[in-house]
Design goal:
- The chain is an alpha/beta fold and about 625 residues long.
- Helices cover about 50% and strands about 10% of the residues.
- It contains 16 helices and ten strands.
- It has helices at about 1-30, 80-90, 120-130, 145-160, 225-230, 280-295, 310-325, 325-335, 355-380, 385-390, 405-430, 445-475, 490-520, 525-555, 565-590, 595-610, and strands at about 35-40, 50-55, 65-70, 95-100, 130-140, 175, 190-195, 265, 480, 485.
- The strands form two sheets. The chain has an eight-stranded mixed beta sheet, with helices on both faces. Strands 9-10 form a two-stranded antiparallel ribbon.
- Strand 7 (about 190-195), helix 5 and strand 8 (about 265) form a beta-alpha-beta unit.
- Helix 1 runs antiparallel to helix 7 (about 310-325) and helix 11 (about 405-430) runs parallel beside helix 13.
- The mean pLDDT is about 90.
């Protein structure tokens, strides 16, 4: 009966994966009217730049269409921009989005291109595609990608000034989104220009002069924005108005004229912090609206008519189903002869909370264990650079090449050690006096079981990866929720991901000891106990994240240094992974009594998910 239930659960998960594949494909291709092609070009220095092409089927040599070339930001790949890309392609534009060099499937050519392959992709689209109307090419970029737009436009500006007779106007419109600000006076002229940053974006403080009495992210009062508008439309703001906050930039207003190629538009969406820009309705609307005004769309659809939330839903459904299927796959494998020795259903809990004092100690200990790591996260991740500087290689090392994952690992190791300390404290204060021994938690493990656990984990992970490969091969899609993603990798990328797996496994082994050993209580239903364990792993983080974002939306500043947004974005993702990990590990523990099998499976998968998207630091 249990085998049948596991098989049914697996089939349900696979069905949801198929729904996700088809739904994601349908949204990306606009119900089959757009081709999504995964392509590569070679640069003059021999680097390979991988990019996604969203080509409307109406685009032919006889009917060329305008194009938008988009650069993602740091720690992002082409897929991270697909919400906006699909909306642009839906309106008839050909869209091109790259993996920056040293990210995703592009080669590790960091330092070989000031724009990490973005300028090379623009040149390729301009010169080589007869189905693209190269008189109408727009470029855009977010964060580091916005910096790439500035660099491209500055290079074109240099050519325009230094060799006007041979200057080629490759760009018709440029949209700069959320980079650290730098003066834009060197950009090429005669190009429609948009600039945007989120009202709550910490990066909207960098490069801008503070305006007393106004939120740091309020672009309407920034001198720099007024100067940018004056570059396109001289005299719009008088000199004495540049520093006068009572004279404001009208957000979203077109200064100048798109027809005369001197338009300047400032965007300041109120639904975006820096980390959420790629899913911000404000930014996606503004991007579509800007290009539809700058470069008329072949298939004009109102910018307010956005369907990208459905794409997000379908894609996230696949990621959730993929994680969920680890349990039935593991349970079915436990029924096979090679893994049957691991199939030892968990017995009754050995721990108990027998008095009000026990409950009080448990609640206090759980709150301390739940709140201290997230509260300390901004401080802890700042130590990453100090730790890696001991290797002489800055914020990364020769093996651990991904700066964001290094931050996660350093914080997780602190959290694991703190959780382990709290476990021993709670064990000695409560359970030991009640006669419970450490050996009762199943810490001991034989070499044979270690081998079986490794083999079973490999089998489960390969099964999940097979679904990913199937999705990529037949539908050209992956599974993702914002930046948590399961996508195809080449061997070198997978090698990098697996280097991080031991740290994730260690954290979840310690977590499993606490949740599946210490926190399984006598005389408590499994459902109630599992809920308590999920809350132990997530409640403190949820509260800390909520406090940060409430402060951010009330003051525009959040808590502490502006760079702390990275820590709170990381914690937001940890809420999702901690919930999934707690449930998956408990389900596998109940079937095996093993503190280790669930953590090895889930720890490896979540390491891959956290490093599917990575970029090396700038040279």
């Amino acid at each position: 009966m249990k085998k049948q239930k596991s098989l049914i659960a697996l089939l349900i998960c696979l069905a949801f994966c198929l729904i996700s594949m088809f739904g994601t494909w349908s949204m990306l291709t606009c119900n089959g009217t757009v081709e999504v092609n995964d392509l590569k070009i070679s640069t003059s220095k021999g680097d390979l730049v991988r990019f996604l092409e969203y080509r409307p089927k109406t685009a032919t040599a006889d009917n060329p269409v305008p194009a938008i070339v988009y650069s993602p930001g740091n720690d992002s790949t082409a897929e991270s921009v697909r919400l906006c890309s699909s909306e642009l392609a839906r309106r008839g534009y050909a869209v091109y989005v790259l993996d920056l060099l040293s990210a995703g499937h592009s080669s590790e050519g960091i330092g070989n291109s000031p724009t990490f392959g973005f300028e090379e992709l623009i040149d390729y689209v301009y010169s080589n595609l007869d189905y693209v109307d190269n008189a109408h090419i727009g470029i855009a970029g977010y964060s580091k990608g916005g910096g790439n737009v500035i660099r491209v436009m500055t290079t074109l500006g240099d050519q325009q000034r230094e060799d006007p007779d041979n200057y080629v106007r490759k760009v018709d419109a440029a949209l700069i989104l959320a980079p650290p600000f730098q003066p834009l006076d060197a950009l090429a002229t005669g190009v429609n220009l948009g600039f945007g940053a989120g009202l709550y974006d910490p990066y909207s403080r960098i490069g801008f002069k503070p305006v007393e009495g106004y939120w740091p992210g309020d672009l309407s009062v920034k001198r720099e924005m007024k100067e940018t508008i004056n570059l396109g439309v001289p005299g719009t703001f008088a000199e004495d108005e540049l520093d006068d906050p009572n004279v404001k930039v009208e957000i979203g207003h077109v200064y100048g004229s798109f027809a005369e190629n001197n338009a300047r538009v400032v965007y300041n969406p109120a639904d975006s912090t820096h980390g959420s820009g790629m899913i911000s309705r404000g930014f996606i609307h503004d991007t579509v609206d800007f290009f539809m005004q700058a470069i008329p769309a072949p298939n004009p659809i109102d910018a307010n008519d956005l369907v990208y939330p459905a794409l997000m839903l379908f894609s996230a459904l696949g990621l959730i189903a993929l994680l969920a299927m680890t349990v039935p796959v593991a349970l079915l494998l436990l029924e096979t002869p090679i893994f049957a020795a691991l199939h030892r259903p968990a017995g009754a809990p050995v721990s108990g909370l027998n008095t009000k004092k026990d409950w009080t100690i448990f609640i206090v200990a759980s709150l301390i264990a739940g709140f201290v790591p997230p509260i300390m996260a901004p401080v802890i991740i700042q130590q990453t650079s100090k730790i890696f500087s001991l290797t002489g290689q800055g914020t990364t090392g020769s093996v651990f090449v991904y700066g964001v994952a290094n931050n996660v690992v350093v914080w997780m190791m602190f959290s694991a050690l703190f959780l382990l300390a709290m476990f021993f404290l709670f064990y000695n204060v409560i359970h030991k006096k009640n006669g419970v021994k450490l050996s009762d938690y199943g810490l001991a493990i034989s070499l044979a079981d270690i081998g079986r656990i490794i083999l079973l984990a490999i089998a489960v992970i390969l099964t999940c990866r097979s679904v990913v490969w199937f999705a990529d091969y037949f539908f050209k899609v992956d599974f993702r929720l914002v930046d948590l993603s399961m996508a195809t990798m080449d061997w070198n990328h997978l090698r990098v991901s697996l280097c991080y797996a031991p740290f994730f496994i260690l954290y979840w082994c310690i977590n499993s000891l606490t949740m599946n050993g210490c926190n399984r209580f006598k005389n408590m239903s499994e459902g109630k106990n599992l809920l308590i364990c999920v809350l132990c792993n997530t409640f403190g983080t949820i509260v800390v994240v909520l406090v940060y974002y409430i402060m951010l939306y009330r003051t525009g500043c959040g808590i502490g240094a502006f760079s702390n947004w990275k820590a709170y974005m990381m914690l937001s993702y940890m809420i999702l992974s901690a919930t999934a990990g707690t449930i998956i590990n408990r389900k596998i523990y109940n079937a095996t009594s093993s503190l280790y099998l669930g953590p090895v499976i889930f720890g490896t998968l979540i390491a891959i998910i956290n490093t599917t998207v990575y970029t090396l630091p700038a040279a």
